[in-house]
């Protein structure tokens, strides 16, 4: 019998493969190592990220699901809640206790009940509705709030880039 | 790259040796020539390191196979730190710096690297899906070999220190002792992981074993480091080079200690506070532990909020957080009714004291709310004080409502009601399941304020402290009033939660008719009166600032605004307590505004205390005349009981 973290990741992988939510695909990069996953997230329809397919990488801690995984987009992203290096800043990925931004309710934080699927769905909704209060990328947050047209243009360029089209 | 370096090195070495041999023609002169020349020695040294490196690679191939990227990264990082520390150690022993010394340190570093790799490998066991026999053979032989080497080198260092006194061998002895502990802990972990892999079911106590292993090994390491620092500081100088590892060891030990403590607490809580989930409950839920996503067949626990998890999953989570993983109910702060429901049947002095406390408990509300509440609180409370045990054992606590009692009543009532209405009692419905899952419950559950001391059992000293007319006595009474207010607040919060649940109940429960018999029988008891006073009083507290106190009090539902803010309510309590004393002067006060204007400071009270008892009696007379308002109160209380009965809430069923 393997470790509990591994068993849980396998169960989640199985579930995600059998019954994948729309616009999301995820799985381990290699079957030898279940603790690093790659995910593909389709930009939600009706938003400036529509049509894009954004790759991201999930790294799970050895004590998953007691601690949250880390998620990082591996493509260029311009979004108020994504750091310049691609790290995603949403409360569901933060362990209760530490509060990097000082505004999150503990009810929104990580708990073992959450799952990869829930994380990715939260990320999709984050793409659709940025939270300009948190500001992992302050430039993006300001632009989102004040110059929406410009923000949309940049987002569209990123979408084309992820699809391999020239900007 | 590596190949290039080693071949260049090889060429250089052969050039040096060839050159020496060519010049001297004989073996010994050639050796002397090489050792005399610094350049040649440098080449030889480099060759030596290259050989060590290649040997390391060979051993790695044999024992570990290919390294994973993470393993290599960690190895490199730790290696650089160790190298820096070795250089620091050189400064302490600069006097006996010679090739032998360098060779010893190289061997130490070499062995250390393999210890780290073995540790990583064993840690990885838990995370790798498939492990073949090769893995076990490799790890087993690697651990055995490293253990034997450590032991031999440790003994060598020990003997040489005994024979020749403290030399640099002291450092090596200490380092190998530390490495031995590392090997020991790695071996234990390996055995535990391997044992778990052989079974088909998860091994539940493994985590506990691992925790204690960490703790013991950490303790040994800390002791070793401290000893070493003391010895070194005495003989040589302060060993700067062990400070970094020592710091990390102490930190790990602290963490292990903390983990063990938290784990023990979690286990104790689970064993004492939470019941095992019954097979029936498991059948009703979807039977999957949401933490590990596996079936729950045995060993699962039910939390106060009704969510069921594996015992082991819960334990490892409670080590970090004392909340329910699903609804985040703080399990440590949730009052368990069992602990507060102390049976106190027929305790004469206690009842008397409680009854004495009742009118004072009722009156702050009266002071703020005018005549509406006053009749009930005083009319029922004070007579009780006169005859301490009016209703015999039928009503156990006339004076102060205890949650357990209220809830027990509510429970009985509910059963009766459902029987009369022809509705069978819900079949073993776990009451907590009524609570919607997390995220669906708009205001997160406000934990009730802490239960104040038991108000029903006063000892002689407390009673003496409260009777009498001196300022200290009055202060005691005020303190008691605050305690009561806290209880009332918690009752209010509970009530609020009940209402929230009622709102979502299915309709059949709502058409249950009220039960006139049971309620009528209860009306005159002080317990109920105070219970009814509870929402009204907190309504008054909430409306202390509002211009329409009566309107707020008249509608208990509206009055149950969240009163979770403790400081502010206690402030309200003081302002209410003062108006109550202010009644000394004016008996029939109907408006809280009038009261507020008449705030009497505690200093004043000392002078007016004499009138107190008589005015209390007077207010009883005045109030008892007001029978129409009493009936109104009765109606309202009835409504409350009804509502309470409709709500199969967490706490009410606990008393079953």
Summarize the structure.
The complex is a heterodimer of chains A (167) and B (656). By secondary structure, chain A is of the alpha+beta class. Chain A has four helices and four strands.
Fold blueprint:
The complex is a heterodimer of chains A (167) and B (656).
Chain A: H1 4-18, E1 24-30, E2 33-42, E3 53-59, E4 70-73, H2 116-128, H3 138-146, H4 148-162
Antiparallel strand pairs in A: 1-2, 2-3, 3-4
Chain B: H1 2-24, H2 27-36, H3 38-63, H4 69-92, H5 99-125, H6 133-164, H7 169-198, H8 206-235, H9 243-272, H10 279-284, E1 288-289, E2 294-295, E3 300-302, E4 308-310, H11 311-318, H12 337-340, H13 348-369, H14 374-386, H15 403-420, H16 460-466, H17 471-502, H18 516-522, H19 526-542, H20 549-554, H21 556-559, H22 566-582, H23 592-597, H24 602-608, H25 612-624, H26 627-646, H27 650-654
Antiparallel strand pairs in B: 1-2, 3-4
Describe the structure.
The complex is a heterodimer of chains A (167) and B (656). Chain A is globular and about 50 Å long. Chain A has a single domain (4-162), classed as Ubiquitin Conjugating Enzyme, CATH 3.10.110.10. Chain A has a four-stranded antiparallel beta sheet. Chain A contains four helices and four strands. Chain A starts with a helix and ends in a 5-residue tail after the last helix. In chain A, helix 3 (138-146) crosses helix 4 (148-162). The longest helix of chain A has 15 residues, at 4-18. With 167 residues, chain A is α+β, with helices and mostly antiparallel strands. Chain A has helices spanning 4-18, 116-128, 138-146, 148-162, and strands at residues 24-30, 33-42, 53-59, 70-73. Chain B has 656 residues and is mainly alpha-helical. Chain B folds into three domains: 64-265; 273-334, Herpes Virus-1; 351-654, no CATH class. Chain B is 68% helix and 2% strand. In chain B, a hairpin with a 5-residue loop joins strand 3 and strand 4 (308-310). Residues 336-411, 413-444, 509-625 and 648-656 of chain B have low confidence and may be disordered. Classes of the chains: A alpha+beta (167), B mainly alpha (656). Chains A and B meet through helix 1 and strand 2 of A and helix 7 and helix 11 of B.
